[in-house]
Amino acid sequence: MPHSIKGDVVVIGGGPAGMAAALSSWEAGAKSVFLLERNEYLGGILPQCIHPGFGLQIWGEELTGPEYAEMFIEKLNRTGVEVMTDTTALELSPERIVKAVSPQGVWEIKANSIILSMGCRERTRGMLRIPGARPAGIFTAGLAQYLVNIAGYLPGREIVILGSGDVGLIMARRLTLEGARVKMVVEIKNSLSGLVRNYVQCIKDFHIPLLFSHTVTEIKGKERVESVIISEVDEEGQPLPGREKEVSCDTLLLSVGLIPENELSRQAKIPLSPLTGGPWVDEDFSTDVEGFFACGNVASVFDLVDYVTLVAERAGRAAVLPSPSQEKYVLQAGKGVHTVIPQRIREGRNGFLFIRSQKSMRKVTVSLRGKDKIFYEKRISICRPSEMVKLDLSEIPWPQEKGEIKVEIRGTEIWGIS
Amino acid sequence: MSEEFDVIVIGGGVVGCALSWYLAHFDLRVLLLEKELDVCSGVSKANTGIIHSRSYWTPHTLKGEVHLRSLPWIKRAEKELDIEFLKTGALTVAFSQDELEFLYTLKERGKIEGAEILTPQEAHTLEPMMSDKMFAAYYDPETRVASPFKLNIALAEGAFLNGVRFIFGQEVVGFEEGKNNIKVITKEGEYLSRFALNCAGLSSSYLAQRTGENIPSLQPLRGEYLVLDKECKSLVHHVLYPVPVGETKGILVSPTTDGNILVGPNLEPAEDEDTSTTKEGLKEVEEGGKKLIPSLPLSQVIATFSGLRPTLPARDFQIFFSSRFPSLLHLVGIESPGLTASFGIAEYAGDLLQKKGLKLREKRSFLFRSSFPVFRELSWEERERLIQEDADWGKIICRCEEVTVREVKHALLSSPGASTLDGLKRRVRVMMGRCQGSFCGMHLPFLMAETLGLEERKIVKSGRNSFYLGGETKEVTSDASFY
Questions:
Q1: What percentage of residues in chain A have a pLDDT greater than 90?
Q2: E strand intervals along A249-319
Q3: Which of A117, A225, A340, B442 could form a disulfide with A13 if both were Cys (CB 3.0 to 4.6 A apart)?
Q4: Contact between chains at B384 and A106 (C-beta distance less than 8 A)
Q5: Whether B117 contacts chain A with CB within 8 A
Q6: Which residue out of B233, B266, B276, B392 would a mutagenesis test of the A interface target, given it has the greatest number of A Cβ atoms within 10 Å?
Q7: In chain A, what residues touch B297 (CB-CB under 8 Å)?
Q8: Would you place residue A415 in the very low, low, confident or very high pLDDT band (cuts 50, 70, 90)?
């Protein structure tokens, strides 16, 4: 292999997770850290997220995406972390060898620890199997965000957005400000997929109609999109006959979910959770394969970049420390819970537990149940699938006995925005 | 219009391109006129890509005759076009005693060495995921799979390399008979030739009717498909056919040359050549697929599409000279197995032209096409060597299919090159992977504009007005209804 190198830590992916992980590995004493990024610049999706709202949780300050990224880029510049942009990792072996390409050539990097931070991709029209024509004018919301904020182009002029995920909500506002007309946002569920603050600031303040329990059932148009058929759906998400309406538009934007990108993880034979779509991890974001860590959206799609930073810092530190003890507890998503991350707990002394509920609820009790016994409960006023519940592991009185623990959420279900 | 051609081929689908490539073997001046902006833009762009073996030919038909004539060409095409016909073999699956008879018909019809009727146990060793409900299966080792786009484009490139001229955006609107020639009239111009071939696919019947032929209109029959992620590559290794009901081969499950799995097609009449998929149609394809592979992982579907079969009521090909324009040859109703039969059709049509006086003198030097390297298929050593030659080989623009900037530039600058995003997709597989262009869609239009010296906002997906971008940001709209 032409460019063969060795490192303490190799981080794959230079988005928010990768940047924080590389930085904390370096700060924890790694002698050599390589940060691989396929784009020409670091930051992942942050540079195109020009809206504010990042950093409130960890710095108490509202930054834009580029500003948030820049804080890390500046810090990285003051370290010995080797940043390799324009470099795409193509192969990953369980023996911790990464093969990558860049305009300089082919790279083979052997590492003591590998941190996976490849992020996620957007769900597409094909995956949803939306019937109809295949004209120009169908975009995922993140792609549209790039076109508007980085490339300086509108994806179209008359826009329907499917899905009330955060990128879709943010784009509804951006496109309106840039001179396009966002005709409506339709959401198949009966509640919001994104953050409430994004609904208020991007949809409500701009008087954009948001239709719950509706979906797009057909796309029409020969060359560009000409219209979409939207239909009301029942509780199972099935279109109700006779409840269709044709909406003319030249663009359909999809904001219908994100999928952790784990093609490399699979090559390294790292077991993945069917619930999160990412590797099973412990509180240090160590995977089930020794020497591999996974942090950020590659492990589970997070709601806030701040949380991604928090978990990546833990992964970065742990990647330079000796392998810790065996896991004591395995957490499972119980009643009312969509996902929990981490799913493994070794010590439970420090770190965080992130829980995503299945439904929007108020008067909520989060509980941890050991062998038929609840050993921890926390009451919160409200929870939504779009906003993770974050618990401090140190608050939890872990039982003596090792084993399975069920995480449950109970409460009164709520609909819509309220 | 001083130049006169020997043959003008109307239509750049697989039939038109196969004919051009075949005729390019001889000392002839050939021109191909295509209505769209690229070859492989109509019927040829959406089908299974299967090269059906002898077992699947239809006796007593023209389509059967040209099918058989085509098969010996496969080896030659592999050499001359540098293209892969993946020899997967096929299993036709019977689910009852009644269907068993059909398997024997196939075996008898093909007389293929190594072909046999398998018990469910035997078939399961070949395809472990196949339904337990199967009664027996016919195994045929000769079935192959091609990429419909790659074949069509390789034929076009091979033709171009040997002197065939291509002009795009030329919709033929009429003909005029000259003394010893025929004038082909398009919306944009006029072209003179000794012979003209109507390979216009879905428009072929219409064009023939316009020249006074008493031929029925084509009924476009739509077939819908599901494409599964490459992660499912090991799901099936052979083409799996059900026992057909009626005139089609039924909903099959097939590997592709690129590692995806294809499920489909169903069959339904399409109005106005509409290639929209429908909820019911996709459901039917899903169920058809599940009949063969009950565990079909629908969560791994990355794309759906549909294609059209340009069928005549008699469900056979019709290849005949125009009664009004003696030097105009019509090729109408070229539906399945049109891709398989394309070489045979070319040879058959060539014979007809020869009988009418066209001299087929073999060229002294016919050039073989060689395909451009495909980065994802190269060894690490080859990758390193190419990157050192040109750094664009080290820039991956499509992460799902691992396509480099170098390959995209080549597809744009080759001849006939890609002039649309779909053209790029069919040449190098950008936007065809699991993210369906959500990532490379950020860069491709701009790389394309830069490489071809076009305005960015003029970049189109496929048709002339299928603009990818909707205008610049902060542009003042003149749309009064906005306010």
A1: 92
A2: 251-254, 258-260, 292-294
A3: A117
A4: yes
A5: no
A6: B276
A7: none
A8: confident
User: What pLDDT score was predicted for residue B476?
Assistant: 62
CATH of the domain at A140: 3.50.50.60
**Host domain of residue A348:** 333-413
pLDDT score of B394: 98
A372 pLDDT tier (thresholds 50, 70, 90): confident
Token duo for residue B399: 């992460």
- Residue A334: what residue type? G
pLDDT computed for residue B480 by the predictor: 45
Long-range contacts of A300-304 (CB under 8 A, 24+ apart): A300/A260, A300/A273, A300/A276, A300/A339, A300/A341, A300/A354, A301/A120, A301/A257, A301/A258, A301/A259, A301/A260, A301/A276, A301/A277, A302/A354, A302/A388, A303/A166, A303/A195, A303/A386, A303/A387, A303/A388, A304/A57, A304/A388
Residues of chain B with pLDDT > 70, as a percent, come to 98
Taking each continuous run of H as one helix and of E as one strand, the counts in chain A are 9, 27
Is B52 a catalytic site residue? yes
Q: What is the pLDDT of residues A41-68, one digit of tens each?
A: 999 999 999 999 999 999 899 999 999 9
Nearest Cα neighbor of B344 from B112, B46, B52 is B52
* 3-state secondary structure (DSSP) of residue B348: helix
Q: Which amino acid is at B308?
A: L
B90-141+219-309: CATH superfamily: D-Amino Acid Oxidase, subunit A, domain 2 (3.30.9.10)
The residues of chain B scoring below 70 in pLDDT are 1-2, 476-483
Which residue in A255, A344, A245, A258 sits closest to A296, CA to CA? Answer: A258
Q: Which two tokens stand for residue B71?
A: 């098969």
Same domain? For A205 and A264 the reply is no
Q: Could you tell me if A245 and A296 lie in one domain?
A: no
Asked if pLDDT for residue A380 goes beyond 70, the answer is yes
Which residue of B lies nearest to A262 if distances are taken between CA atoms?
A: B231
This prediction has a pTM of 0.96
Q: What is the interface pTM, i.e. ipTM, of the complex?
A: 0.95
Q: Let me know if domain B4-48+148-217+314-355 sits in CATH 3.50.50.60.
A: yes
Structure tokens at B460: 């189109």
Q: What is the pLDDT of residue B322?
A: 96
